[in-house]
C-alpha cells in the first residue's frame, strides 16, 4: 500500500510538471507558476471543496491553491477513499515544496467517500466547489452546488445526455440569480494565443468563415484492470471513460475541446444539424465498455459554413490535435496561432498556463465581487458533442432541435454502489434508434 501511495504521489507530481513544461514559454507566468514562485497576494480565506480526485481533479485543486495563497482546500470527496487519500497526499507533497502546506486543511473528518460525497463536501461549509468526477454526475452536482449558494468550477462535459443538459441549464439560470460564478473546464478559452487568434477571426481577419476542421486524433488512454471483488458498478466507475452514461463517449469527454473552439470561432453560434460516421475497430474487448474509438462528424451552420470533426483514440496511428479554418480571404491554424492569406499574422505574446488561468481569473473575480459565467458555452458545446454522438450511434441526420429535445436518458436518476449499472450495449448505426 505504501509503495502504491508513493507511486501515486510521484505520478501526480511528474504529470503536473510535464503539463506545465509542455505549454509554458521562457519567462512566462506559466513557467513561474510551475516553479512555485508566483501566486497572487492573499485576501480573505476561501474554502474550496474538490469532488473527483483523478489527475484532472487533483490538478485543479493545485491550480486553485496557486491562484491565491489565502485559498484553502477544505474538503475532498470521491467515490473511493483510496483516491481521496492519494490525492491529498500528493497535494501535500507538492505544496510542501513551496512552503504552503497551511493551505491544505483536509483532516480525516473532511475526507468523504461514496457516490453521495458531494452532499458532505457541500455541507462542510465550502465557498467554491471543483467538480471533476465522471461527467454523468455533473447535472446533479451542479444543481446541489447552486442550491447551496457555492461558486462552481465544472470540468467538461457537463452532462452525458440531453435531459441532463436541460437540468444544467435550469441550475445555471438559478446561479445567475444568486450571482454565483460558473467557470468551465473548457480550458482553450483561457489560452492567450487562442483567445487572440479567435478574436481576429471573429473580426474578419480571413473574411467569411467557410469551413472549420477540428482534429482530436490521438492515442489510447488509461485502463484499470478489473480487480478481484470489484462489482460491475465499481469496475465501470474505475473505467468511466468507456461507458457513455458516465463519459458521453470520446466525442464528448475529449473532442469537445475542438468542437467548442469551432463554435467559439463562429461567435458562439451553434450548428443546426449533424451527421456522422463512427465505430470501434481497435478497442473491441469488453474491458473497453461500449464507447466508439473513432468518429467523423459533419456539422452544418445556418449560414452555410461547415465543420468537419475528426476524433480517434487508437495507438500506432497518425496523430493531430488542431483546428484549421478556411475563409474567403485566408486560412488559420488555431494551435499555431497563425493566419495566412491577405493579412498574415502570428501571435507572439506571452502565454499563460491555460489551466492556471482559469483559476486565476475565477478567484480574482470572486474576490472582486464579479461573476464569471461560462454556462452558455459549456452547455451548448456539450450539446454539440452529444448531437454528434447521436448522429454516429444512429446513422441519422440529427438536427439541433431534435438533439435538445431528445428524451434519451443515459444517466439514471439515482445511482448507488450496489445497483447494476446500465447495460453496456455497443451502438450499431442504422439499427440503434434515435430517442
Q: Which features characterize this protein?
A:
2 domains, globular, Rossmann fold, Dihydrodipicolinate Reductase, domain 2, nine-stranded mixed beta sheet, 15 strands, 15 helices, 435 residues
Chain-wise SSE layout:
Elements: H1 2-23, H2 29-34, E1 46-51, H3 55-67, E2 71-78, H4 81-96, E3 111-113, H5 117-123, E4 128-131, H6 138-148, E5 151-154, H7 162-177, E6 182-184, H8 192-202, E7 209-218, H9 232-238, H10 244-247, H11 250-253, H12 256-265, E8 273-279, E9 294-300, E10 306-313, E11 320-327, E12 330-333, E13 338-341, E14 345-346, H13 354-368, H14 375-394, E15 398-399, H15 400-405
Parallel strand pairs: 1-2, 1-4, 2-3, 4-5, 5-6, 7-10
Antiparallel strand pairs: 7-11, 8-9, 8-15, 9-10, 11-12, 12-13, 13-14
Helix pairs in contact: 1-4, 3-4, 3-13, 5-6, 6-7, 7-14, 12-14
Give me a quick take on this structure.
This protein has helices at 2-23, 29-34, 55-67, 81-96, 117-123, 138-148, 162-177, 192-202, 232-238, 244-247, 250-253, 256-265, 354-368, 375-394, 400-405, and strands at 46-51, 71-78, 111-113, 128-131, 151-154, 182-184, 209-218, 273-279, 294-300, 306-313, 320-327, 330-333, 338-341, 345-346, 398-399. It is α/β, with parallel strands linked by helices. Strand 1 (46-51), helix 3 and strand 2 (71-78) form a beta-alpha-beta unit.
Amino acid at each position: 500500500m505504501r509503495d502504491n501511495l508513493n507511486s501515486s504521489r510521484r505520478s501526480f507530481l511528474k504529470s503536473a510538471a510535464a503539463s506545465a513544461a509542455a505549454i509554458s514559454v521562457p519567462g512566462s507566468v506559466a513557467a513561474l507558476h510551475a516553479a512555485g514562485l508566483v501566486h497572487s497576494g492573499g485576501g480573505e480565506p476561501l474554502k474550496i471543496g474538490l469532488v473527483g480526485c483523478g489527475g484532472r481533479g487533483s490538478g485543479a485543486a493545485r491550480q486553485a491553491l496557486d491562484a491565491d495563497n489565502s485559498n484553502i482546500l477544505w474538503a475532498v470527496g470521491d467515490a473511493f477513499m483510496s483516491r481521496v487519500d492519494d490525492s491529498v497526499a500528493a497535494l501535500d507533497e507538492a505544496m510542501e515544496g513551496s512552503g504552503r502546506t497551511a493551505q491544505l486543511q483536509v483532516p480525516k473528518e473532511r475526507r468523504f467517500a461514496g457516490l453521495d460525497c458531494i452532499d458532505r463536501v457541500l455541507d462542510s461549509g465550502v465557498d467554491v466547489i471543483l467538480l471533476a468526477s465522471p461527467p454523468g454526475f455533473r447535472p446533479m452536482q451542479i444543481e446541489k452546488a447552486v442550491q447551496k449558494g457555492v461558486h462552481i468550477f465544472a470540468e467538461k462535459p457537463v452532462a452525458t445526455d440531453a435531459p441532463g443538459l436541460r437540468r444544467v441549464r435550469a441550475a445555471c439560470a438559478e446561479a445567475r440569480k444568486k450571482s454565483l460564478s460558473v467557470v468551465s473546464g473548457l480550458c482553450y478559452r483561457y489560452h492567450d494565443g487562442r483567445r487572440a487568434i479567435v478574436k481576429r477571426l471573429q473580426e474578419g481577419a480571413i473574411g467569411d468563415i467557410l469551413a472549420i476542421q477540428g482534429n482530436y486524433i490521438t492515442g489510447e488512454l488509461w485502463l484499470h484492470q478489473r480487480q478481484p471483488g470489484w462489482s460491475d458498478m465499481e469496475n465501470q466507475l474505475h473505467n468511466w471513460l468507456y461507458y457513455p452514461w458516465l463519459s458521453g463517449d470520446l466525442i464528448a469527454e475529449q473532442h469537445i475541446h475542438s468542437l467548442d473552439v469551432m463554435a467559439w470561432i463562429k461567435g458562439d453560434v451553434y450548428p443546426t444539424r449533424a451527421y456522422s460516421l463512427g465505430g470501434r475497430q481497435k478497442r473491441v474487448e469488453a474491458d473497453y465498455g461500449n464507447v466508439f474509438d473513432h468518429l467523423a462528424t459533419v456539422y452544418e451552420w445556418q449560414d452555410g459554413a461547415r465543420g468537419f470533426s475528426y476524433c480517434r483514440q487508437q495507438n500506432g496511428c497518425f496523430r493531430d490535435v488542431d483546428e484549421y479554418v478556411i475563409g474567403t480571404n485566408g486560412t488559420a491554424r488555431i494551435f499555431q496561432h497563425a493566419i495566412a492569406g491577405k493579412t498574415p499574422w502570428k501571435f507572439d505574446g506571452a502565454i499563460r498556463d491555460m489551466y492556471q488561468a482559469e483559476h486565476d481569473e475565477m478567484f480574482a473575480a470572486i474576490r472582486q465581487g464579479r461573476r464569471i459565467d461560462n454556462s452558455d458555452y459549456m452547455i451548448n458545446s456539450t450539446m454539440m458533442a452529444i448531437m454528434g454522438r447521436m448522429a454516429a450511434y444512429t446513422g441519422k441526420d440529427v438536427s439541433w432541435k431534435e438533439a435538445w429535445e431528445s428524451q434519451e436518458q443515459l444517466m439514471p436518476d439515482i445511482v448507488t454502489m450496489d445497483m447494476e449499472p446500465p447495460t453496456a450495449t455497443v451502438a450499431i448505426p442504422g439499427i440503434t434508434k434515435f430517442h
